[in-house]
């Protein structure tokens, strides 16, 4: 049996590894406009580079998401680290759109693999703290990656390479230290069968899923827009040329989301979902006003409010759904939830990127924001019509 100190060290390592993967995933966001200037590609291509990451991540969740249950946690984490090391090398040498797409595809698959196995490993070591770490670490990681890369791009040399060199060193160190970690799962047969893509929503959870789906789709669509087009939007609306602004916006969105999750961690699901919808409506409205008023401070205030809505909605949706699944149904329900969420994360931003070629960035943003506000308002109306809470408040 592991000692408390050993368990704590394992939790810290796993949390930092998860944070590292998500930091790398958001690191390109502040650099997109630099890539555009250097490689001369359109906003539509930019959202394609962003979108292939999400689709590759989905492919990993659907295929290798449960592989560590059969092979053990450490081998799967190690492969994910090796893939991310390869992605960092591609980013460092990227001199064309094809290289960027290749890097994002490999990075997306590595992150999808790592997200599932690290979440499972954290739960293995601590059933009480594991879910909270799994919820907060990705948001903190995205904040660190976007803000850190923005700072380096603004004030340090080699803006398109230095962040990836630093992340490369982090992943190499983690790949070495990993083998000191205690394996928490015994290998068993069935690895090949586990690679077959499957989705399953238990019958008793379908009604709850339909109720939270509009809010969840809106929240993740906001996240996708911020990580793809928000830096370009700020430049177009305010004239700011700082490399730091785009990363700072992503950091504000994700940090406020993480703070909301932490503050609401003991609340029941229905007490999070309705405030979440209201915060998203208010935050998005403030962002649209900021765009037309060319107000950078209001842009950050709107992002702060929107992030709080995103975090509360994410935790509320999970807490509504997971208690409704039996133990052997939870992995399938979680996969289905993430597939829907990441589709909302990627497809709307891809559509927005293509619409900018016809209507321009700011009019496209107006339409995008208006649709999401209507979706959140509809979700809020539906939640208020619910006679009873979506769950009994039992936490997954």
UniProtKB/TrEMBL annotation:
InterPro entries on file: MFS, MFS_dom, MFS_trans_sf, MFS_Transporters
Main location: membrane
GO CC annotation: plasma membrane
Residues that span the membrane, as ranges: 42-64, 76-99, 105-125, 132-156, 162-179, 208-229, 244-264, 276-294, 333-355, 367-383
Gene Ontology MF terms in the entry: transmembrane transporter activity
Keyword Transport appears in the UniProt entry: yes
Domain Major facilitator superfamily (MFS) profile: from-to ranges: 8-388
UniProt-annotated location(s): Cell membrane
Keywords assigned: Cell membrane, Membrane, Transmembrane, Transmembrane helix, Transport
Topology term for the membrane: Multi-pass membrane protein
Designated name of the protein: MFS transporter
Source lineage: Bacteria, Pseudomonadati, Pseudomonadota, Gammaproteobacteria, Pseudomonadales
